[in-house]
Amino acid sequence: MEVNSRNNIPFSWVIYLAIISSMNCFALESTNSLEKDLSELKTEVVRLKNEVVTLKPKQIENGGTPLAIGWQDFHGEMNGNASIGFRKVSGMDSNFDLIDFNPLFLVSYKELFLFRGSVDFAVNEQGNTDTSLDVANLNWFLNDYVILGAGKFDSAIGQFVQSLSPNWINKLPDPPIGFDSDEAAPQVEIGLQVRGAFPLIADMKANITLYIANGPRALVDTVNNDIDHISTSGSTDRIGNYVTGGRLGFLPLPQFEVGISAASGKTSLYNLADNSTLLQKGRDYYVFGADLAYQMSNLNFRGEVVQQKVRADVNSYPRASSTWEAWYLQGAYRIQATNIEPVLRYGKYHTPFSSVNQRQWAMGINYWFTPSVVAKLGYELNEGQRGMQSDANVLLAQLVFGF
Q1: One-letter-per-residue 3-state SS of 165-225
Q2: Rounded distance, CA 363 to CA 342, Å?
Q3: Contact status, residue 73 vs residue 110, Cβ threshold 8 Å
């Protein structure tokens, strides 16, 4: 397929660019296994488009009314994943959990705009359904290389959150320690984002993301006089604190990528007990990250480090600085001519609280029924403060269906 001009990009490329923007590392891992499925999908899309073109005039003749701006200019699709899991924490009862349904909706207008929205449905411990809006953003394709977006985005800091966190992509049932919600890795941003990719020399490529967004919330434990955690789930408060930052990725080889991320700004302070605003000026905040990914045949290796920090301020409450830091290294190998994939990961998570600090060896084995349906079995060897949950080992199993 060829792109003849900047204003003549096929719709399939629009969807491709949108997905690659948020999941470019996954492309390194599964290109070969998806080629056949993509070919079949393209054939089916063409057939459906032809069918719609044939049926739409008949609908109009029978009283149907097309959109004034042209029904044929809109295209959409839905994908996502669903999963169910089992967990046994040492010293505690076992249970089925990790029940999650996460549809992703993509709707485009011509080759100009793309809306991307994702909703998460999960069952909590009480048996009720928790619903959250993961992302919702409108993207404008400025040219072949640059996309301008506004709304709620996965954080551009690092790679795990924005590219590897979906259950059918993550190699193990749990995320790396420190990379889950309210830990060291920022999760989402609400604001403006510019994302682009461009070729360099030979096979070298680069990608870049820049953003400005609402600042995160620092939740203060007023009893113990410390910051309990930083919430980066996406806030729309009117305090007026912002962060600016981004990520730069460099691919010296098609199968190897290194990236560096950073952001800084102000964080708002909230009372942990009742989520009320602590009426003080925002505190200085920054986050730094670095990541790498390498794919060689059936071997996949990656690593990432991230650090969030709220700086000290003698005129604020609490005064001391607080830092959350996490890193991990992970290797996975798809055994030749089989559907079996062993995984090994080591990580460390450091916080201001000794009861939460943790080291972890995580090992697992995956069986791939298809490129997007996988059964995972994992075991986590955790080292933390004795007697705390951070020191308990965990057995996990998970079945994931990506669509």
Answers
A1: CCCCCCCCCCCCCCCCCCCCCCCEEEEEEEEEEEECCCCCEEEEEEEEEECCEEEEECCCC
A2: 8
A3: yes
Task: Read off the pLDDT of residues 42-67 as tens digits, 9 standing for 90 and up.
Answer: 555 455 455 444 444 444 344 444 44
User: ∠312-316-318 over CA atoms, to 5°?
Assistant: 70
Q: How many C-beta atoms lie closer than 10 Å to residue 356's C-beta?
A: 20
By DSSP bridging, strand 217-221 and strand 256-271 are parallel
Instruction: Check if the beta carbon of residue 379 is closer than 8 Å to that of residue 393.
Output: yes
Q: Both ends of the chain: CA-CA distance in Å?
A: 24
Residue range 375-388: mean pLDDT, rounded: 95
Tell me whether residue 192 is exposed, middle or buried, using C-beta atoms within 10 angstroms of its C-beta: 0 to 12, 13 to 18, 19 or more.
Answer: middle
pLDDT confidence bin for 70, thresholds 50/70/90: low
Residues 163-198 have pLDDT tens digits of 999 998 999 999 999 999 999 999 999 999 999 999
Rounded to whole angstroms, how far apart are CA atoms 271 and 227? 9
From the list 189, 326, 201, 343, the residue with the least C-alpha distance to 265 is 189
Ranges 69-73, 241-245, 318-322: which has the least confidence? 69-73
Give DSSP secondary structure letters for 68-81.
TT-GGGEEEEEEEE
Residues 318-339 as b/e (b if ≥16 CB within 10 A, e otherwise) read: beeebebbbbbbbbbbbeeeee
Q: Which of 154, 155, 159, 167 is nearest to 302 (CA)?
A: 159
Question: 159 with 179: CB under 8 angstroms?
Answer: no
Distances (CA, A) of 188 to 182, 242, 251, 332, 371: 11, 13, 25, 27, 27
- pLDDT, residue 328, reads 98
Say whether the peptide bond before residue 318 is cis (omega within 30 degrees of 0).
yes
Residue whose tokens read 């003749």: 61
Domains of the chain: 11-402 (2.40.160.10)
